Every structure is written in structure tokens, then in C-alpha cells.
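Q: For a teaching session next week I want to show students how multiple molecules come together into a single three-dimensional assembly. I've collected the sequence lines for a complex. Could you give me the predicted C-alpha cells for the whole thing so I can convert them for display?
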Amino acid sequence: DSGVTQTPKHLITATGQRVTLRCSPRSGDLSVYWYQQSLDQGLQFLIQYYNGEERAKGNILERFSAQQFPDLHSELNLSSLELGDSALYFCASSLDPTGDYGYTFGSGTRLTVV
Amino acid sequence: GIQVEQSPPDLILQEGANSTLRCNFSDSVNNLQWFHQNPWGQLINLFYIPSGTKQNGRLSATTVATERYSLLYISSSQTTDSGVYFCAADTDKLIFGTGTRLQVFP
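A: Of course. Below is the structure for the complete assembly, covering every listed component.
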């Protein structure tokens, strides 16, 4: 167990639907990162939050949004789902905003859009 | 943005063989990490190596930051080493390479 908890582990949903993925960072870590791993795009950075504030944005679609709550857990919301959104979504956490002390990854949420 | 390339894309080994995986990055980075993604999809940190050489059991890694590359050595490979190996350049967030898929057969 890495200390980063992602739920659910698996999710199957239909096109057009909306889902929420949840991430609890390792105890003490203030920064949360979301990554998408798809077959054609590889592992891509989506977005980072640090202590409740958005800090960096990557290749995140407008249909996707995220937030980090006061208890530091984060949620990634995916809406108007398309078949191409099927992927493994990882959350990672770090102590500081720049990852100087390393990153810890969760075990991922596998999303299948049918 | 920074580009991270890995080679070879695929590697097939017999148990006991040694291998070297390479990671090239196009710009200066704060750090360089190696990960192993096992067949169940879990990403496992192997090394956090901005420069120099580190060893952990049968695995070792070397990063030459001035020449913008890193190498991962796997010695006496085992079937449990199978999976995908990623390097990731740390630029305040991780930029991943495309990975090397390793299959080790008994």
C-alpha cells in the first residue's frame, strides 16, 4: 500500500455520462496530481492541486474538472464521457508543490466507457 | 515542452539475462524517476535519481544530467520483472516517456 488511495478501482459507464474519481493523498502530503494513461496517449499529466489551490494544468479537457478539498482529498470529475476517455487514471501526491521529496502514486482507477 | 524518449520500446528476455533500458530527455530537469508498471497496472517507484548511480538489489540506475540521459540496468532478470518500465522527467510535475515493455520468459 503506497498510502495514496484511489476509489473506485474499476468503473464502467456509458457514453454521455458523468463520473467522479476520488483520491486521498498520503498522510502529510499537500500536493495532488492527476494523470491519464490511455493506449494511444501514454501517461499524461492532467492537473495539480496544492493545499486546495490549482497549481498547474496539463492536457486536461474542458469536459474534465478537479478540485481539492480542505481535508486534502481530491476529486476528478469527467463529464459527457466519450469512448476515448477510457483509460487508467492515476493520482499521485507529494509533500511540496514541486515534488522535491518525490511522488507517490495510487493504484489507479480503470475507467471503461461503453 | 520537454520530450522524454525511451528505448527500446520492447524487450524480450530469458530468465537470467541482463538488460539496459535508456531514457533521453530534451531539456534540463529537476530530477529523473524510474517506475515499473506491473501487469496489474500498478506504478511502482524504482529510483529517484537526478544524477549519479544508485543500486537496489538487481536493479541499478545511472543519470548523466549534463548529457540528458538515464540508464536502468536489470541484472539476472526474473519473470516478475515483466511489465512496462517508465522514466519520468521531473519539471515540477512528471513528464513520462513512452515506456519499455519487458517480457521475461522462464
